[in-house]
Design brief:
By secondary structure, this protein is an alpha/beta fold. The strands form 3 sheets. The protein has a 6-stranded mixed beta sheet, sandwiched between helices. Helix 2 runs parallel beside helix 12, helix 3 packs parallel to helix 17 and helix 8 packs across helix 13. The longest helix has 16 residues. It is globular, with a radius of gyration of 21 Å.
Amino acid sequence: MSDLALKDLYQGFRDPETIKALLKQIADKAPGLKEPLRIMEVCGGHTHSIMKYGIHQALPENIEFIHGPGCPVCVMPKERIDQAIALAQMPDVILATLGDMIRVPGSKSTLAQARAQGADVRPLYDPMDAVKLAQENPDKTVIYFAIGFETTTPMTAVVVQMADQLGLPNLLLHVNHVLVPPAVHAVMADGQAKVNAFIGPSHVSVITGAKIYQPIVDAYNTPVVVSGFEPVDVLESVLMLVEQKLAGKAELEIQYSRAVTLDGNTGAQALVDKYLAVRPQFRWRGLGYIPDSSLGLSPDYPHLNAELKFKDQLPSEELDDHKACMCGNILKGLAKPTDCKVFGRGCTPQTPMGSCMVSSEGACHAHFKYGEVIL
């Protein structure tokens, strides 16, 4: 038996004939919709797939995708980036974080620029590498700047667990995990967003379970389908939403049933509950303060908390994006990247003015990369 190749895991979900069949079913049923179907894809990973494969262009005119706040790098406020830079510039500190974070602009610079000026900033692919760094550099303070949605919270929890169990005095964490459901509630609560259906990210629900979206269904009478990220996944999810609308339903459904359950990974949830804790509020870039929308380090582990230890040395001034940048409205689903006057002109992936252009999962980055630039 041959070894499993990576393409074996996704090939069937990019099959042209399957895609054509799903598009035909959607096209046949779409005329029966009583109103346009405006689907918010919550996660930037879905935006990337939709743009890359031209799914938005292949659907009937009465079905529209609206980009949501689903990019943890994009929603990190400038003052948090400034704190990471300040930590990295401290003597004998190694600042470790996930790759995309390094290019996100703070108020004056980025972690990449700080590294160019001599700060020891390390991009990680595996959060557990922070533990290795601390073990290999006992004369340095290693600070792990943790980001991500619910998907990456168990890995951060394991870093806390290992730091505590191994008694590593030189490993600290600055935790900035953000949560999807509170952001969706914030988008919907003011009634401005013209959204009447959601595609939820499957990788989040692998951990939390699909049940986290039920309150959204109930509060706004709006269907949610938890979807995978391949073209067939997205199109099947769109079809499921169309069928719900035609039947006059608003329900929670799981398209990505090959990995997502209603309850999720209860072991991972227990680990997160032990080592991390919900913050009363958190400021999202472009969205402002959202209650109960992020996780910080549990108060049971103050000796590992870089945010607490260096509280008096970290910048805290709240700073908004450039006035010409429309990332706030894009994250709320009130504007598209092409509505922004600086998109593709002053703001590009090489010279990003706003957070939506920095990350590969950002809506502006996806539009720029896949040909939506208007010059």
